[in-house]
Description:
By secondary structure, chain A is of the alpha/beta class. Chain A is built from 6 helices and 8 strands.
Amino acid sequence: MNEALTAETVIMKGHDGDKVEAYLARPADVDSFGGVVVIHHLPGYDSATKEIARKFAARGYAALMPNLYYRDSPGASPDDAAAAARAKGGMPDDQVVGDVAGAAAYLRGLPGSNGKVGVIGYCSGGRQSFLAACSIQLDAAVDCYGGAVVHVPAGAPASMKPLIGLSKNLSCPLLGLFGADDQFPTPADMTELSRTLDELGKEHEFHTFSGAGHAFFSVDRASYRVEAAVEGWDKVWAFFGRHLAGE
Amino acid sequence: MCTYATEHVSATGSGKGPAGWFRLSEVSVYLDHPAHALADHTLNIDFINPARGPSARVAVELTAQTARALAKAIESALDAAPPGLA
């Protein structure tokens, strides 16, 4: 693989058939590929997360990242759109699930798709990755330090509910990547989620990295932790390699 | 961590954004990850007018120390104003 890829902005069908802007990155040198829906973090549909989509394409996956804030803020800069979403109280969970479902359908419909689609999300997107995996049929899911899965913090929008009760509906294997110094989710939260998934017989693999807190994958932020990020990416490649690769 | 918690304040006043001055209608105040400041968490303030679109926004990201100093300075300035002005 020579890491050649193409990337572009597309319009996909999201929740309720809404037109949603999305960033698509595809490998240029493979005949068959799996798909990855990338869910951006709370700060929005930004350049750093588009870079993540391109990283998947360089590794042989088609990646599609819907702009979850597009409906209310078409054409706005990512930080302005994120601020507007925050002022409004955040994105409704059912709308996010609909957008991920639309992105998964788009990926399955690409010429060359092997029909397998996973999801990965960061920060709030980590929570939404778990939500999507418990709401629609997927082949693999990765939750990167998603909070409000086990407990919802004080002051969060009233519409935000814990998701642990949905665990019985988890439709695919789950990889969880967390920071030992994170306060939300805490390592204790993830132990509780892991125990719940064990009791339900749901396949999962959790890793908590020492010396890392929240957002350790974010290369453009002070929270970036190179050792955790490099090891975390290795876990992602191995996990998606098992569940999404192949013809 | 993402806090998700946001304080909302109704606002009367003006702010200067990328397209010039505009009337403010709201202020969002929250401690969370910054978009630009080099810190894990900052006190973020968005002076906004949603009716004019998401770009009608004046944003600041302040360290907690700066934010507390600013809050004190605002109170001091208001307290020091001549009677009847504030």
